[in-house]
Amino acid sequence: MGDLVLHLDGISKSFGGLSALSNVNLHVEEGTTHAIIGPNGAGKSTLLNVCIGRLKPDSGRVMFDGQELTGKQPHEIAQIGVARVFQTPEIFQEMSLLENVMLPAFAHRDGSFRFNANKLLSKQGEIRDEAEHILEDVGLKDQMMMEGGSLSRGDKRRLELGMCLILHPRLLLLDEPTAGMARHDTNQTIDLLKKIKSRGMTKVIIEHDMHVVFSLADKVSVLARGQIIADGNPDEVREDPKVKEAYLGGTQ
Ligand code: ADP
Ligand code: MG
User: Fold this and answer.
1) pLDDT tier for residue 124 given thresholds of 50, 70 and 90
2) Which residue's CA is the nearest one to ligand 1's atom 24?
3) Which of 21, 46, 54 to mutate to test ligand 1, by most ligand atoms within 8 A of the CB atom?
4) Out of 19, 72, 88, 211, which could bridge 76 as a Cys pair, Cβ 3.0 to 4.6 Å?
5) Whole-structure pTM value
């Protein structure tokens, strides 16, 4: 196991009177897959949004590989090498799957989607080849000329994962990557995430499908009512009575 690379220290966030996160501390080892599980409304997506700069915490700090992420804009965080797949896929509905995967590669190093004619001309072939490889990896190569909007929800999620992979992130955050998928699609996604695992990137995965968590995670943290109530190896966490009460035997 590697060094700790992602640190969340004392993160709190309220929405009006509602405390969504309360003094959350979380540390993730480099190259591992760290799952965050917990009942609906526990604060999982809020925590992810704090990591990527979509939400500012009321207090606390997020550090990745020695750099502070708190207070940075989402595109600055992306440039540091942090990518995310949201709970609701965010893709370009009217572009082909190939264009969807290619586009982030043009935007990335500029920090914006500004048109870069130089790069377009010099790198287009290379980026297209890589995009095709990625579409093959995520199981969408046969449909690569179809419009993004025509895909099922599960396929959109795989497309969004492809849009992340072309950025070669060092940290990938996934918010319920298998939500809404049938078992077959879920298993395909698990295989895909295992394949990515061998590339050494660090992953934080929010998930409430226990099959996915126990197939993929090296470490598990359990969030309930905005607080981390347990942390450890999947087997330890599964047997923790607090977890059984709050999550496994709870409302899910
Ligand atoms: P989870 O992803 O674990 O289901 P969320 O992080 O989405 O939980 O939500 C945690 C709590 O914060 C919930 O009670 C939710 O209703 C509330 N919440 C999340 N986002 C907002 C927001 N933008 N405005 C107000 N309340 C929010
Ligand atoms: Mg959520």
Assistant:
1) confident
2) 15
3) 46
4) 72
5) 0.88
